[in-house]
Amino acid sequence: MKKIAFSSRLTFILKTLLFSYLLTAGLLLLLALFLYRFDLSEKIVSLSITGIYVIATFLSGFLMGKREKSRRFLWGLLCGLFYFLLLTFISVLVNHTFKGIDSGFLTTLILCCSGGMLGGMLS
What we know:
Elements: H1 6-38, H2 42-67, H3 72-95, H4 104-122
Helix pairs in contact: 1-2, 2-3, 2-4, 3-4
């Protein structure tokens, strides 16, 4: 069995994160169109955003699990964690503070990590 170099793994993780963020951007644009067109409630929009996070991390974990043949759930979890950390970093950059981070912070962390881990396990 051939060992994969650390830089190759890191590059692939970054590619899967880029894919997941592009998917997130596309789905959020679609959600914005639906919000404009159908005047969706705040609860539906909030649930949709959470669903988009889970879908994006699931696919990222799935792709990483396909690449790695062992410990796929850990690689998926790692993808979900990196997705969440980048999401948090961007949120702090936009808000210039941690004040916008509320009780949903931990829930979003768990959902992103779980989505990535599930994707890795099912790959």
